[in-house]
Write a structure and sequence with these properties.
Layout: H1 3-9, H2 50-63, E1 67-71, H3 74-85, E2 91-95, H4 100-113, E3 116-120, H5 125-129, E4 136-142, H6 154-168, E5 188-192, H7 197-200, E6 210-214, E7 228-232, H8 235-248, H9 254-265, H10 267-286, E8 291-295, H11 305-311, E9 318-323, H12 326-336, E10 341-342, E11 352-354, H13 366-371, E12 378-382, H14 388-403
Parallel strand pairs: 2-3, 2-4, 4-5, 5-6, 10-11
Antiparallel strand pairs: 1-7, 6-7, 8-9, 9-12, 11-12
Helix pairs in contact: 1-2, 2-9, 3-4, 3-8, 12-14
The protein binds pyridoxal-5'-phosphate.
Length: about 400
């Protein structure tokens, strides 16, 4: 089966008791056992729930992974990857241009826990590999990045990781009670695939070990649920993450799992329209005097355009623009749009406009923010699936108010 078919059919077997074509939402915390320990694979819903399992199967199928594990948010999924696979004292290597919430998690929650993170400002795979030392267990990348929309070459980073791992060999991990979290899994590459989604880019096929999603965004797709997931290349990698999910408990409820799963069924269709609309908006924006610069991987003058053409099947729904006139112009622009709502988040059917320096990336120090290009005049558009003519008219009138043209 191909991706659109898998998104609709995997994890959606008709309910065996009633024949319901769409399986019911299993709103239950526990499962009645015939005798102690004698059950149908479900005992207590922190561990497993059929609604959540159906979603995990579908996510694994669309990413081409062996299995998946769902979480209550994207940041809970990221936390799980670190805490299930690394130990205090281990290090993580990352590209500095990342989601602000991931940066806050690494620096303010996981650093006190004992994680060491080293960042590079370069998207050159060799620059990432150069930071790998004997303590490094995880390389973390996002591509395209948020909100600068730079790309990293996943296949090249994966090759560099393999070479670095071979150079240093593996270290045995000290046993801490024989849980699935006690194995040394070597040097792993995790890709946050939230922006591109499996409809446009499949990191596991390019050599990554793990994919992380904020399913809150395109996969849910309707701005009505918070969720996250980890998809792994192999069963050996998902076992510690599943163990951690049950032991630490950041799992999603059945209603949220249902909403994310329903969104996933139309993902491929929506991504086509998001990408087509965003390309039109980007081309229009590039011609406006009121914008100092426009970033979209689908524009031929984008620094990573050739890589985007190789690595992605379309260029996604996010367009980043810098207004002439800095913060004041950005503020006027964002209070003048009528269809684009001024809101954090992205990836829903409706268009949103965000000001990263004040909103999503406020938790990053100004110095780092500006180094990754998050200046005060920068606005991030999450281009929805409305009629693109209406969207451009809305942006046009807001730009006139903000900059006079
Ligand atoms: C939103 C987002 C996250 C965090 O996900 P939540 O569901 O908000 O916890 C992580 N990475 C990226 C790229 C995001 O856009």
């Amino acid at each position: 089966m191909r991706l659109s078919t898998r998104a609709i059919h995997v994890g959606q077997n008709p309910d065996p008791t009633t024949g319901a074509t769409v399986p019911p939402i299993y709103a239950t915390s526990t499962f009645t056992q015939a005798a102690p320990g004698e059950h149908k694979g479900y005992a207590y819903a922190r561990g497993t729930n059929p609604t959540r399992d159906g979603l995990a199967a579908a996510l694994a199928a669309v990413e081409g992974g062996s299995d998946a594990c769902c979480f209550g948010s994207g940041v809970a999924a990221t936390t799980a990857v670190v805490q299930a696979l690394l130990r205090p004292g281990d290090s993580l290597v990352a590209y500095s241009d990342m989601y602000g919430g991931t940066f806050r998690l690494l620096e303010r929650v996981l650093k006190p826990w004992g994680l060491v993170t080293r960042y590079t400002d370069s998207n050159d795979p060799a620059a990432l590999a150069a930071l790998v030392d004997d303590t490094t267990k995880l390389v973390w990348i996002e591509t395209p990045t948020n909100p600068s929309l730079r790309l990293l070459d996943i296949a090249a980073v994966a090759a560099q990781c393999r070479a670095a791992a071979e150079r240093r060999g593996t270290r045995p991990m000290t046993a801490r009670g024989g849980s699935p979290m006690d194995h040394d899994l070597g040097l792993l590459l995790a890709v946050d695939n939230t922006f591109a989604t499996p409809a446009l880019q499949r990191p596991l096929e390019l050599g990554a070990d793990l994919v992380v999603h904020s399913t809150t965004k395109y996969i849910g797709g309707h701005s009505d649920v918070i969720g996250g997931a980890v998809i792994a290349r192999s069963a050996a990698l998902i076992a510690p993450i599943r163990f951690y999910a049950n032991a630490a408990g950041g799992v999603p409820g059945p209603f949220d799992s249902f909403l994310v799963h329903r969104g996933l069924k139309t993902l491929a269709l929506r991504m086509e329209r998001h990408s087509a609309n965003a390309l039109r908006v980007a081309k229009w924006a590039a011609e406006q005097r009121g914008f100092e610069s426009v970033a979209y991987p689908g524009l031929p003058n984008h620094p990573d355009h050739e890589l985007a053409r190789r690595q992605m099947s379309a260029f996604g729904g996010i367009v980043t623009c810098v207004l002439r006139g800095g913060l004041e112009a950005a503020r006027k622009f964002m209070t003048s749009t009528k269809l684009f709502s001024c809101a954090e988040s992205l990836g829903g059917v409706e268009s949103l406009v965000n000001h990263p320096a004040i909103m999503t990336h406020a938790s990053m120090p100004r110095e780092l923010r500006e180094r990754i290009g998050v200046v005060d005049g920068l606005v991030r558009l999450s281009v929805g699936i409305e009629d693109v003519e209406d969207l451009i008219e809305d942006l046009q009138q807001a730009l006139r108010v903000a900059t006079g043209g």
